[in-house]
Design goal:
Length: about 200
């Protein structure tokens, strides 16, 4: 079973995915793959450096290999649609390759919960048996992003690059509402898994 988990930035995709993980699903965090494997690959670092210059590199001394500064890169790509699309074209095929590697290496019958922020924006529904949107009220979303240290202006900028949350809710097979307590979200996931198991 392959479950694609999406939603707006700050709505709680990772929290929901960890709920699935605690119930026996294997979790794949697409943003984590980009952060930990793709943006650290020498050929990707070189391509980004060639595109944007040294200003998107972390300040590092000694003989360390250059590393991408994600805040600096984010500031460039989220303020320019053409730059954002260029980065997506560089990173997304590599993400899909890592998905395939993980799926192929897992035992038959493995149940997957895959976090995919741009699931509907990139028409990735066919990868999954079911799609799940994690949603919350806009004020809750902005508050969470501010708690992460993202200023409200930048938070609004990043939200604006994604499909409106209401549209994601319409497109998803199932919706988890994450305005309440962690226990309420856990209960929704437990119930949803029962429904998915019947529909699988």
């Amino acid at each position: 079973m392959f479950v694609g988990i999406t939603g707006g930035i700050g709505c709680g995709k990772s929290t929901a995915a960890r709920c699935f993980e605690r119930r026996g699903f294997r979790r794949l965090d697409s943003d984590g793959l980009v952060r930990e494997q793709i943006l650290t690959a020498p050929e990707v670092v070189a391509a980004i450096r060639s595109k944007f210059g040294d200003e998107v590199l972390e300040a590092a001394g000694g003989r360390d290999a250059p590393r991408i500064s994600r805040p600096a890169l984010g500031a460039r790509v989220f303020s320019d649609d053409a730059h954002r699309r260029w980065l997506e074209e560089l990173t997304h095929p590599r993400v899909f390759g890592l998905w395939r590697d993980a799926f192929d290496a897992a035992p038959a019958g493995t149940r997957w919960a895959v976090e995919v922020p741009l699931l509907f924006e990139k028409q990735l529904e066919n990868w999954f048996d079911f799609t799940v949107c994690v949603a919350c009220a806009p004020e809750c979303q902005l508050a969470r992003l501010e708690q992460r240290g993202l200023p409200r202006v930048l938070a609004g900028q990043r939200i604006s690059t994604q499909l409106p949350l209401a549209r994601k809710v319409e497109l998803a097979d199932h919706v988890l509402w994450n305005d309440g307590t962690p226990e309420f979200l856990e209960a929704q996931v437990t119930r949803l898994i029962e429904v998915l198991n019947r529909g699988a």
